[in-house]
Design brief:
173 residues, eight-stranded antiparallel beta sheet, alpha+beta
Length: 173
């Protein structure tokens, strides 16, 4: 390539880099704005009350102007941050898989640890909105947990860190 070709290539490369810099880069997969994929339909900032049940233990939390406070149950220091994190995970972390009615036909839900559930969480929003989910047993690999929404027949397979965040609130097993 002659001297003129190299100069033209350098100018084109510089123009391309400048165009990328001024336009913010190139679009494509993975660059879409974040959208929550979790099962919680109430925006996390609108949750006002949370009730957690695990076996015979119960916790009840209320969000006031100064933040979260425990109305029922024994909690450890720093529960407010763990509670916010648990609500956020339930809102943002989507299920790995959802078992449909057809897949569950003739199957005993007790094998998923949902009858009775290992733990249960009820969230209430600022209005009449409410959301209830039951967490069951771990899958065979132990990385995910079965869960069911109260108003649904389907069973979701959630990442294990979602129910663990709820169980750590009051020291549940």
């Amino acid at each position: 390539m002659n001297r003129f070709g190299w100069i033209a290539a350098a100018i084109l490369a510089t123009a391309f880099l400048a165009a990328l810099a001024f336009t913010g880069g190139r679009g494509g997969p993975g660059l879409a704005p974040f959208t929550p994929a979790g099962l919680l339909t109430i925006p996390a900032e609108q949750v006002r009350e949370v009730e957690v049940t695990s076996g015979d233990r119960r916790w009840y939390f209320v969000r006031g102007e100064s933040g979260w406070r425990a109305e029922r149950g024994t909690v450890t220091a720093g529960f407010e941050g763990r509670l916010e994190g648990a609500v956020t995970l339930l809102r943002n972390s989507g299920p790995e898989r959802i078992l449909t009615d057809a897949e569950l036909a003739g199957v005993d839900v007790a094998q998923f640890g949902l009858d009775p559930p290992r733990s249960r969480v009820i969230l209430r929003g600022s209005g009449a909105d409410s959301f209830a989910i039951s967490f069951g047993a771990a899958n065979l690999l132990g990385l995910s947990r079965y869960a069911r929404l109260d108003d649904k027949r389907e069973i979701a397979l959630l990442p294990g860190f979602v129910p663990e965040a709820w169980e750590q609130l009051g020291g549940a097993p």
